[in-house]
Design brief:
mainly alpha
């Protein structure tokens, strides 16, 4: 099931990432992720720091991009799923 039907069809985050696997792979993400009693890992999307860490980790893992603090610590904070949209749109141009 799609997380957001308005995302570009080639956006890799139309399906949410596996937070359990991400917490095992990335110690920085593990610090901000919440583990429930059932073992499921989740993210508090109202916590700006957690969203920043998630976005940074996903951009590095999925696109090889090392994003510095000035880009992610400004006033405009986009959810991780919206970040690849401009990349997908540009790659769709003829």
């Amino acid at each position: 099931m799609s997380m957001n039907p308005f995302l570009h069809p080639r956006n890799p985050y139309r399906t949410p990432p596996d937070f359990n696997a991400l917490a095992k792979e990335e110690p920085e993400f593990r610090k901000v992720a919440k583990t429930e009693l059932s073992g499921k890992v989740s993210v508090n999307f109202e916590d700006r720091q957690a969203v920043r860490v998630l976005t940074t980790v996903l951009l590095k893992r999925d696109f090889g991009l090392e994003v510095g603090k000035p880009l992610l610590y400004g006033h405009a904070q986009h959810p991780y799923s919206a970040v690849p949209c401009p990349l997908c749109r540009c790659s769709s141009l003829p």
